[in-house]
Amino acid sequence: MDWVHDIFRNIHVVGGFIGLALFWIPLLSKKGSPLHKKTGKIWVWLARVVLFTAFAGVLMYIPQLQAKGHGLVSHPNSYAFILFLGYLSVITFIITIYAVDVLQHKKDISGLATPYMKLMAWLSILLSGLIVAYALILRPEMMPVLLALSPVGFTTGMGMLSYMGGKESSPRGWLYEHLGSMIGAGIAFHTAFAVFGMTRMFDIGLTGWVAVIPWILPAAIGIPASIIWRRHYQRKFKEIPA
């Protein structure tokens, strides 16, 4: 099965690098333009391939740990990293499909609130809770990272339920949901690159508290950027004072 794992890993790496560059085209291009729509659709499909191969890689690696006698509870350090990758893959997939469905149902939110999409929202919240519990109970070395990034699943799920419940008062709520979700997916892509790609490409060996920086830097930049972007459009549409 090693050759299958290698194929998935190569697809994941190539797709991830392409997606990293492609992400910025729909983000910076004029919203609603042909360029924005076309590159956005390509990125979404590419993201699905990258996320699928990442999650598949996680599933293939777990039996290898078990074969070494590393149990989920007895060796938390062996599992923390791989479990977080699986968590990040699932949450990013949920964010991506939600961002697309928001556009498809921007005129009627009720069409978005399907049992499947609600299940995805609750799954996001559940996974966030499980990661927090794993970090606090078993206390792996990665505990600060797990606790710092695990709320992403909670906030994603709660935001989805709130919007689907009709709690967004702005008529352009679909735009804010779409932009926020896509930026969230982009944060995940850049986090993966910062943690795996950049450190290996440039042979950067970070130790101590500095090693946490690649994990949290994309979120530290992306989340404020998302807030600023939303306020920009709110001012543009005169929903808040300029």
Helical region count? Answer: 9
Shape: globular
Order of helix and strand elements from N to C terminus:
HHHHHHHHH
Question: Rounded to an integer, what's the Rg over CA atoms?
Answer: 19 Å
How many strands, which pairing sense, and closed or not: the largest β-sheet?
none
Given helix and strand content, the structural type is mainly alpha
State the separation between the terminal residues, measured CA to CA: 58 Å
Helical residue percent band: over 70%
Task: Record keyword descriptors for this entry.
mainly alpha; transmembrane; membrane; DUF2306 domain-containing protein; 9 helices; 242 residues; transmembrane helix
Short description:
77% of the residues lie in helices and 0% in strands. The protein is mainly alpha-helical and 242 residues long.
Describe the protein in words.
- This is DUF2306 domain-containing protein.
- Keywords: Membrane, Transmembrane, Transmembrane helix.
- The chain is an all-alpha fold and 242 residues long.
- The protein has one domain.
- 77% of the residues lie in helices and 0% in strands.
- The chain is built from 9 helices and no strands.
- α4 runs antiparallel to α8 and α5 runs antiparallel to α6.
- The chain is globular, with a radius of gyration of 19 Å.
- The model has no long low-confidence stretch (mean pLDDT 86).
